[in-house]
Amino acid sequence: MSAQNAIAILDSMFDLFKQMGGGIALDLQWLEITRRLQLVRREVARSADMAFVAAKLKAHAAHYAATYRPHEGSERIRTANTEKLDKVVEQYSILRAHLEQQVPAA
Fold it and tell me: Which domain of life is it from (predicted)?
């Protein structure tokens, strides 16, 4: 098991967050996020805290995917989408911090 590998997998998800849009592409990105979280879980020894944060990340990503609406020029909808995506990124950052704690000092 390697926290370093888990961090690399988690970091590769960040590009998916930046690309999240709508329609079929959003569904595919959501599936890929789920797959990569499974890979992260296989790489590291999970603590209860880390498992909780990973579950929150998955839940926020699912919520974003399920509630995304094309903004079509509406600032209100664009802002709502951005706020939901920010919550996904926040949970990603927390999970990454948990993984960094598992990396042995050089």
Answer: Bacteria
- C-alpha to C-alpha distances, 21 to 12, 24, 30, 31, 69, nearest whole angstrom: 17, 9, 11, 14, 9
Which DSSP symbol is given to 101?
T
State the pLDDT at residue 75: 93
Q: What angle do CA 51, 41, 83 make, to 5 degrees?
A: 60
3-state secondary structure 70-82: CCCCCHHHHHHHH
Is 99 in contact with 3 (CB distance < 8 Å)?
yes
pLDDT by residue (tens digit) across 51-82? Answer: 888 889 888 888 888 888 887 889 999 899 88
CA distances from 94 to 32, 57, 71, 72, 99 (A): 19, 9, 28, 32, 9
DSSP 3-state helix, strand, coil percentages of the chain (rounded to 5)?
Answer: 80, 0, 20
pLDDT at residue 106 in the model: 58
